[in-house]
Design a protein that fits this description.
Elements lengths: L9 H12 L5 E4 L3 H13 L5 E4 L3 E2 L24 E2 L2 H9 L5 E5 L2 E2 L5 E2 L2 E3 L5 E3 L6 H7 L2 E5 L26 H4 L8 E5 L3 E6 L2 E7 L5 H6 L6 E2 L23 H31 L11 H6 L1
Parallel strand pairs: 1-2, 1-5, 5-10, 10-11, 13-14
Antiparallel strand pairs: 3-4, 6-7, 8-9, 11-12, 12-13
């Protein structure tokens, strides 16, 4: 049995992980408040200052006056301070429809193996059920953004074989082209699911476990799911507690982090080659050491 984290809480761990996954110079349509908002604000502050985020109600790239009141993360002066544009949910939805929103970040009550999201009701919707606030703009975010990142808790009641109500579409029934047949843009859909314990992606439109946090085991993650996810090929036969540098560790194995690392390495190699070529040209054009005449000693010293 793994020990729980003591220097931070699990929600902070989840927010920090998602913040590391934010890419610079990309556009994010973010759910109004909670962990998604905290993650994008942390990322802009520490890692990706050029990332553009749009609030759920349509405010484009504000510079909020922090700290924000927990219930005033939208439709307020402090949260919308110095925004590029005060739009509406409809205007941002139109922009997402034509492909201008790279990522959506949402949270949810329930998610199924195909990435369908329920934030409307628990129970039989036609009979006895408990009603919640509903998706707000989350249905447009999940329907139109190129990639959707979902933040939720690692609990059996949240990872269910079939959601009680589809508030926001994932891959629907999981069949090929199901989203396109429903009229949704081609090439869009669920991308990652992040909990305080684990990281998931999708393989053939089915949820796949690709990493667990360093302070839990794989068995603990699976025990808090009502269905069995697919497994990453490197982790299929291992259920030991992961090490920090293991491919099981979600912190070290996000595709966004890998792409940024490879891009930085490519840039470093290009810079190194440029400097090497410049040094060679400089040496070729300058006189050899020891060849300066005595009368030129002053100018040689100045050089």
């Amino acid at each position: 049995m793994s020990e729980k984290a003591t220097y931070f809480n699990e929600r902070e761990h989840q927010i920090c992980l998602v913040a590391r996954m934010i890419e610079d110079a990309r556009t994010y349509w973010v759910a109004g408040g909670g962990s998604p908002m905290a993650a994008i604000l942390l990322a802009k502050k520490l890692y990706t200052p050029n990332a553009v985020y749009v609030t759920e109600d349509g405010v484009v790239n504000p510079e909020p006056m922090l700290p924000l009141d927990p219930i005033m993360t939208m439709v307020s002066a402090r949260s919308s301070y110095r925004a590029l544009q005060w739009g509406t949910m409809n205007s941002v939805g139109f922009q997402a429809q034509i492909g201008l929103m790279d990522y959506g970040i949402l949270n949810t009550l329930q998610v199924d193996p195909y990435g369908n999201i329920n934030s409307t009701a628990l129970g039989d919707y036609e009979g006895e059920h408990r009603r919640f606030g509903g998706p707000g703009g989350a249905d447009s975010i999940a329907a139109n953004c190129w990639k959707t990142l979902l933040m939720t808790d690692q609990q059996k009641r949240k990872f269910v074989p079939r959601v009680d109500f589809i508030s926001s579409p994932g891959f629907l029934d999981g069949s090929p082209s199901a989203r396109e047949r429903a009229g949704l843009p081609r090439g869009t859909g669920p991308w990652r699911v992040v909990t305080p314990w684990a990281l998931f992606d999708y393989e053939d439109r089915h949820l796949r476990l690709i990493g667990v946090s360093p302070f839990v085991t794989v068995d603990q993650v699976l025990s808090e799911m009502s269905f069995k996810p697919k497994w990453h090929r490197r982790s299929r036969h291992s259920r030991r507690r992961p090490k920090m540098n293991s491919p099981f560790c979600a912190v070290s194995w996000t595709s966004a982090a890998r792409s940024r690392t490879s891009a930085n390495r490519s840039c470093d190699r290009t810079t190194a080659r440029t400097r090497l070529s410049s040094n060679r040209r400089r040496r070729a054009s300058s006189p050899a050491r020891g060849s300066t005449h005595a009368g030129d000693s002053k100018s040689a010293h100045v050089r």
